[in-house]
């Protein structure tokens, strides 16, 4: 987009005067101009040139006596201002009239202008000869200037008609009369731009741009990024026009072809269970699957997405259990994106809660049918009608009240109406007519991912279309690989996974992000090529983000003074929990203290995490993961604070309290010792006995203990018995063997680590 404009210095050259003189003359006409680089539109420029040239001609034709008299008087601004306005008005008139009308108008213009000048020149009537000459010159000059403007505005047919006349006029022009029209190009800039690149785009030396940045309080070199808003201000200083870059919609790097109608076959429904925390989602799934999962989860809260297959009347239904706590917003959103039916669990004694409303929003956004399960109807405080009223207030009108939302009052604890709920799920699934093509390469979604010490990157996926097979080359986000193994929800290896099947896949080269789409490719080569492009793009985005943050944030801190920043190195057991905690920690930030997760990944706490925290003056937070004995020793040497949690509530609350200055811990956890399980024994009436070797510290009987497998906490409870050979022992020191049993826990395996710890009161 090009805009034709003239700068002050170009107009001054045309008039044969200096830029300073022109600025002064314009100031007398109430035109505020600060720099010779200032611009006028062509119409304004021509009007100014025409007016000043008329005045110059008239001034040259006035006798010396008249010039003296005129110079002795105060310079009258009004007539000249009127002339400028009249000239602009004349230019507009030419655009509306035809050529013969223009000629007529041009003949009249000099008289009108001259009349105004003669009003305040009493003696000018005695010099009619001079005036006649002036009129002739004036007419000629006006005709040239106005005719040029008219020809520019006329249609092409009129331009051709006056072509010869235009050529003749051009030949007669002197260099000073040639118009130096500057074409100002509008530069398009991205959200961020390198200083050096920006300077090159606007045609200004990089040193001048850096000086302007310094005046704005930004210290940046040519290899650093600045924001668009900053670049826009600098461009304005240099009289340059910029606008945001209009990005084209990014094309998919993998195009998935649509299936033919005759290839589609019915597939099982994928059902997502949603709702507020502790309203009974996992208990409902337990009742459906007749298994007990809740007891093994910390605080009774589902910590990461589980996908389960259930057969109802010989028909398969896949259930996704999405966590209910608001910290898992992103995870719940992913659950809603891959689901066909959403079951909204609401406690009859508690009603609609903020997380329930949030779940409703996600289900509506995904455009999936909702079935409401009103749970805990066996409780005395249960009020089903109140729940229905609250549902209607939030846009869900149940069938009992004349709406189209199915609701089923249930009791997951006492197995009431569970069969009816399952019938409703099958009914809705039939109405939805869910279909997929099993005879094509698989496509699906990653719902969870983690790094397993023995198996490497593991991703839990749901196949939405096609059939996934062992040996398929697959891409998921920036991860790719050949599938080495498929493991179903029962923990058994399978050779293939048809549509609507949840499986764990092994064989990827890195941990994909939960929510990534996975696609089976034709070959390893094709998969690798696409992933390489994605990784380059991802790396560029990370570099751009880091360069944006580093310099400008540091400067902001310098300007605002001492702003405290709580830096955190975050480790979690699975990707979903990591994302959820990151999001929650960002919300905790305040004006006084900024919470910054400088590094986050899945897996056990390692030496490199401690060294990073030491160098960055950060603390290490582990969620469902533990440091090894060597890592604890390193953290003591480096004086790095490591805090571990199993409940997200506690983690977030501790951070919030610490920021408010309210966190006054009275106790601290002290690790007494660690023992490695060398062999396990089964004993009737006792359970599993862990034959262990104490590798550090000592193991105490009746102390608290946790079982760690591959750096992840599997159990946290008490030591029920400790024996040395056949005798009970109060404690066993480092370097000795012992037998350990854990309170109400028997899933002990070789190579597990049993950690003995106690809570000690902190002296005040």
Automatic annotation (TrEMBL):
CC terms in the record's Gene Ontology section: cytosol
Keyword Phosphoprotein: no
Chief site of localization: cytoplasm
Record field: compositional bias (Basic and acidic residues): 65-83, 100-128, 159-178
Domain Tr-type G: start-end pairs: 266-435
Binding site for GTP: 275-282, 321-325, 375-378
Region G-domain, annotated ranges: 269-417
Entry annotated with the keyword Ribosomal protein: no
Biased composition (Basic residues): 89-99
Origin: domain of life: Bacteria
Annotated compartments: Cytoplasm
Keywords: Cytoplasm, GTP-binding, Initiation factor, Nucleotide-binding, Protein biosynthesis
Pfam families attached to this UniProt entry: EF-G_D2 (PF22042), GTP_EFTU (PF00009), IF-2 (PF11987), IF2_N (PF04760)
Single GO term (MF): GTP binding
Biased composition (Polar residues): 131-146
Task performed by this protein: One of the essential components for the initiation of protein synthesis. Protects formylmethionyl-tRNA from spontaneous hydrolysis and promotes its binding to the 30S ribosomal subunits. Also involved in the hydrolysis of GTP during the formation of the 70S ribosomal complex.
HAMAP family membership: IF_2_B
Name under which the protein is recorded: Translation initiation factor IF-2
Organism: Criibacterium bergeronii
Lineage: Bacteria, Bacillati, Bacillota, Clostridia, Peptostreptococcales
Underlying gene: infB
């Amino acid at each position: 987009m090009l805009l034709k404009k003239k700068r002050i210095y170009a107009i001054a050259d045309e008039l044969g005067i200096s830029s300073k003189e022109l600025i002064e003359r314009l100031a007398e006409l109430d035109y505020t101009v600060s720099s010779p680089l200032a611009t006028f539109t062509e119409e304004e420029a021509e009007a100014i040139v025409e007016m000043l040239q008329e005045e110059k001609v008239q001034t040259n034709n006035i006798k010396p006596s008249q010039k003296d008299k005129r110079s002795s008087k105060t310079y009258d601004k009004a007539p000249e201002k009127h002339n400028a306005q009249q000239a602009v008005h004349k230019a507009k008139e030419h655009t509306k009239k035809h050529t013969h009308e223009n000629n007529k108008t041009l003949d009249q213009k000099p008289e009108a202008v001259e009349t105004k000048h003669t009003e305040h020149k009493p003696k000018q009537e005695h010099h009619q000869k001079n005036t006649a000459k002036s009129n002739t010159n004036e007419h000629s000059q006006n005709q040239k200037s106005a005719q040029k403007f008219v020809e520019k505005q006329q249609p092409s047919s009129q331009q051709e008609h006056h072509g010869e006349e235009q050529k003749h006029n051009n030949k007669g022009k002197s260099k000073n009369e040639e118009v130096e029209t500057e074409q100002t190009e509008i530069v398009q800039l991205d959200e961020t731009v390198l200083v050096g690149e920006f300077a090159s785009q606007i045609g200004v030396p990089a040193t001048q741009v850096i000086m302007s940045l310094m005046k704005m309080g930004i210290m940046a070199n040519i290899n650093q990024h600045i924001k668009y808003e900053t670049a826009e201000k600098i461009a304005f200083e240099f009289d340059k026009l910029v606008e945001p870059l209009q990005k084209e919609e990014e094309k998919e790097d993998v195009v998935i072809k649509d299936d033919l109608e005759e290839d589609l076959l019915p597939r099982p429904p994928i059902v997502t269970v949603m709702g507020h925390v502790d309203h009974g989602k996992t208990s409902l799934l337990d009742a459906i699957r007749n298994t007990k999962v809740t007891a093994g989860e910390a605080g009774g809260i589902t910590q990461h997405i589980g996908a389960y297959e259930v057969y109802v009347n010989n028909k398969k239904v896949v259930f996704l259990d999405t966590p209910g706590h608001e910290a898992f917003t992103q995870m719940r959103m992913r659950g809603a994106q891959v689901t066909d039916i959403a079951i909204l669990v609401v406690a009859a004694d508690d009603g609609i809660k903020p997380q329930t409303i949030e779940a409703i929003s996600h289900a509506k956004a995904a455009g999936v049918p909702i079935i409401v399960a009103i749970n805990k109807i066996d409780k005395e405080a249960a009020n089903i009608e109140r729940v229905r009223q609250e549902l209607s207030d939030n846009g869900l009108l149940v069938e009992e009240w004349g709406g189209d939302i199915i609701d089923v009052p249930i009791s997951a604890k006492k197995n009431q109406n569970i069969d009816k709920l399952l019938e409703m799920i099958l009914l809705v699934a039939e109405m939805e007519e869910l279909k997929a093509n099993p005879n094509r390469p698989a496509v699906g979604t990653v719902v969870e991912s983690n790094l397993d010490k023995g198996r490497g990157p593991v991703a839990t996926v749901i196949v939405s279309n096609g059939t996934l097979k062992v040996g398929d080359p697959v891409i998921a986000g920036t991860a790719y690989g050949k599938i080495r193994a498929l493991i179903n929800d029962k923990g058994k290896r399978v050779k293939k996974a048809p549509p609507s099947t949840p499986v764990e896949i092994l064989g990827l080269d890195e941990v994909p992000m939960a929510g990534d789409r996975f696609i089976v490719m034709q070959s390893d080569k094709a998969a690798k090529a696409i992933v390489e492009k994605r990784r380059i793009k991802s790396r560029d985005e990370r570099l751009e983000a880091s360069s944006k943050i580093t310099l400008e944030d540091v400067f902001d801190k310098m300007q605002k003074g001492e702003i405290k920043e709580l830096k955190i190195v975050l480790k979690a057991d699975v990707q979903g929990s990591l994302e959820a905690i990151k999001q929650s920690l960002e919300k905790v930030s305040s004006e006084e203290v900024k919470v910054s997760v400088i590094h986050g990944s899945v897996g056990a706490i390692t030496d490199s995490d401690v060294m990073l925290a030491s160098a960055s003056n950060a603390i290490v937070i582990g969620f469902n993961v533990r440091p090894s004995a060597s890592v604890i020793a390193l953290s003591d040497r480096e004086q790095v604070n490591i805090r571990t949690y199993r409940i997200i509530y506690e983690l977030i609350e501790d951070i919030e309290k610490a920021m408010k200055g309210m966190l006054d811990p009275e106790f601290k956890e002290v690790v007494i010792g660690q023992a490695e399980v060398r062999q396990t024994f089964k004993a009737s009436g006792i359970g599993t006995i862990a034959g262990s070797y104490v590798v550090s510290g000592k193991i105490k009987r009746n102390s608290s203990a946790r079982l760690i497998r591959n750096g992840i906490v599997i159990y946290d409870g008490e030591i029920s018995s400790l024996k040395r050979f056949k005798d009970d022992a109060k404690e066993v020191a480092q370097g000795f063997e012992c037998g350990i049993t854990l309170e109400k826990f028997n899933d002990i395996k070789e190579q597990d680590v049993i950690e003995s710890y106690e809570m000690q009161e902190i002296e005040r």
